[in-house]
Amino acid sequence: MADLTFMPLNGSGHGRLKQGLRDPLLWVVALLLTLIWWLPHSQALFGALFPGQERPVYLQEPFDELLWRHMWLVLVSSTISTLVGIGCGIAVTRQSGRAFAPMVQTLVAAGQTFPPIAVLALAVPTLGFGELPALMALALYGLLPVLQATLAGLAAVPQGAIESARAMGMRASQVLWQVETPLALPVWITGVRTSVIINIGTAAIASTVGAKTLGSPIIVGLSGFNTAYVLQGAVLVGLLAVAADIAFERLARRVAWPA
């Protein structure tokens, strides 16, 4: 019979385990998921904190469904903002598009000046209630940070690197994708990070036009003077934003060029 023995964790494995347990992203995500599960069962706590509320726990929709729909809304709108913002930024930095740079920046900045709630109000008569007007408003609102980061990243690429690539016989497209894009990528990620964080918070107001998000408890709580609902929704939105911020900060470190 084989001798079955358990080998102790070696030093490197134990170190990785300890490092993982100290990971702030792990704890934030764990706390978020724990609250998603626990909040529907938190009647005793919120009843004690807000004794004047007949229904201190938001139970109209499951919190896990609100979380995933909130994340889906942010993911789609941020993807649109990223693709359009980077595409416009690249286009206006090429020789053929530089004349359009002031106009593009003005239009995108104008979109940022409109409050998202105003964009939603204007979009609802045309697109109806639900997620579609919310996607449009969020994509428009998250566009400016991506465009600004794209322009800043491309402007920071050393001219010597571009000239060297051209001297090696690279075409314009090869210079863009093999030289400019890798060097500008850390700055681009910073812009996308800002856009995503903005959209996570702004997506909460999408519930005013019928989209189901983590803002639903906040909107219902505000309309019904139920502070408990507002607190529950705000804590979840805040934790989601913190988790996204930590994840992007970690991604930025991975792609950053050594000094």
Task: Describe what this molecule looks like in 3D.
This protein has 259 residues and is mostly helical. Helices cover 73% and strands 0% of the residues. Helix 2 (24-38) packs antiparallel against helix 12 and helix 9 (159-167) runs antiparallel to helix 10 (172-202). The longest helix has 31 residues, at 63-93. The termini are far apart.
Q: Write down the Rg.
A: 23 Å
Briefly note the CATH topology name: MetI-like fold
Main sheet attributes: strand count, strand direction, barrel closure? none
Report the structural category: mainly alpha
What labels would you give this structure?
MetI-like fold; mainly alpha; 0% strand; 259 residues
In short:
The chain is built from twelve helices and no strands. With 259 residues, the chain is mostly helical.
Note the topology:
Blueprint: H1 11-21, H2 24-38, H3 43-49, H4 63-93, H5 101-113, H6 116-127, H7 131-141, H8 143-155, H9 159-167, H10 172-202, H11 216-223, H12 227-255
Helix pairs in contact: 2-12, 4-7, 4-8, 4-10, 5-8, 6-7, 8-10, 9-10, 10-12, 11-12
